[in-house]
């Protein structure tokens, strides 16, 4: 694949992922469900966002990012891209293992609430953890986007220090006079 195609896929999938997380947050922010049917409907929307937007977006992000890293040798030498790769693996783990699992678990709890085998408050205990996870994942996504756009040169300080050492080695050292 061409570099521009990979970049386009990576960027569009990133938009999809952030959009799915924002949608998840919007559903949660709409307030507590007053009825079991409302609770079930909200959890179904969250599961749909996770299964049809978030999960495919994460897959495309991961594959296009890895292919870009492999196909473009300068990315392999740039520290920002290595940090982005490591953060991307964290995003993958967080979104697939935690968000998607939590979304699908929410649908099961909603079914139990509808059936009357669990109280409506059954899922409220995990809601604060869900918010924390969403904010943490959103922060990782934003950090990845910033690294991809800004592309900081983390090695500048080291190069500057390396350049100063040879210059100082060429200068004769002055002998200091003992204090009298």
Automatic annotation (TrEMBL):
The chain crosses the membrane at residues 45-70, 82-99, 131-150. InterPro entries: DUF2269_transmembrane. It holds the Pfam family DUF2269. Keywords: Membrane, Signal, Transmembrane, Transmembrane helix. The keyword Ribonucleoprotein does not apply. The keyword Transmembrane helix applies. Residues 158-180 are annotated as: Disordered. Residues 1-22 form the signal peptide. This is DUF2269 domain-containing protein. It comes from Rhodobium orientis. The lineage of its organism: Bacteria, Pseudomonadati, Pseudomonadota, Alphaproteobacteria, Hyphomicrobiales.
């Amino acid at each position: 694949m061409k570099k521009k195609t990979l970049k386009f896929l990576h960027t569009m999938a990133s938009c999809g992922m952030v959009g799915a997380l924002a949608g998840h947050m919007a559903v949660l922010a709409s307030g507590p469900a007053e009825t079991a049917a409302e609770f079930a409907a909200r959890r179904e929307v969250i599961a749909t966002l996770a299964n049809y937007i978030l999960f495919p977006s994460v897959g495309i992000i991961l594959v296009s990012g890895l292919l870009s890293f492999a196909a473009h040798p300068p990315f392999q030498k740039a520290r920002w891209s290595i940090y982005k790769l490591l953060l991307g693996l964290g995003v993958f783990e967080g979104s697939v293992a935690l968000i998607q699992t939590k979304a699908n678990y929410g649908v099961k709890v909603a079914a139990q609430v509808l059936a009357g085998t669990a109280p409506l408050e059954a899922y409220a205990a995990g809601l604060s953890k869900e918010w924390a996870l969403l904010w943490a994942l959103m922060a990782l996504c934003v950090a990845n986007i910033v690294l991809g756009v800004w592309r900081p040169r983390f090695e500048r300080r080291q190069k500057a220090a390396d350049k100063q050492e040879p210059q100082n080695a060429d200068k004769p050292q002055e002998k200091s006079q003992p204090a009298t």
